[in-house]
Amino acid sequence: MRLLFLAVLRPHTGNAVTAKRVRNHLEAAGHVCILKDASDSERASDIASLIMAENLEAALALHLYRAGRLLQGHGIPFGVIFGGTDLNEDANHREKNEVMGKVLKEARFAVAFTESMKEIAQQQWPHAKGKIFVQSQGIATTPNSAFNWDSFLQKLEITQSADSLYVFLLICGLRPVKDPLYLVDAFSEWHQEAPNVYMVIVGPEVDPVFTKEVKARLRRATGVRLIQEMSQGDLHTVMKSCFALVNSSISEGMSAAILEAMDLEVPVLARNIPGNAAVVEHGVTGLLFTDPEEFVQLAKKLISDPTLEREMVANGREYVKRHHSWHAERETYQRLLTKLEASLEG
Question: What is the 3-state secondary structure (H, E, C) of the chain?
Answer without folding.
Answer: CEEEEEECCCCCCHHHHHHHHHHHHHHHCCCEEEEEEHHHCCCHHHHHHHHHHCCCCEEEEECCCCCHHHHCCCCCCEEEECCCHHHHCHHHCHHHHHHHHHHHHHCCEEEECCHHHHHHHHHHCHHHCCCEEECCCCCCCCCCCCCCHHHHHHHCCCCCCHHHCEEEEEECCCCHHHCCCCCHHHHHHHHHHCCCEEEEEECCCCCHHHHHHHHHHHHCCCCEEEECCCCHHHHHHHHHHCCEEEECCCCCCCCHHHHHHHHCCCCEEEECCHHHHCCCCECCCEEEECCHHHHHHHHHHHHHCHHHHHHHHHHHHHHHHHHCCHHHHHHHHHHHHHHHHHHHHC
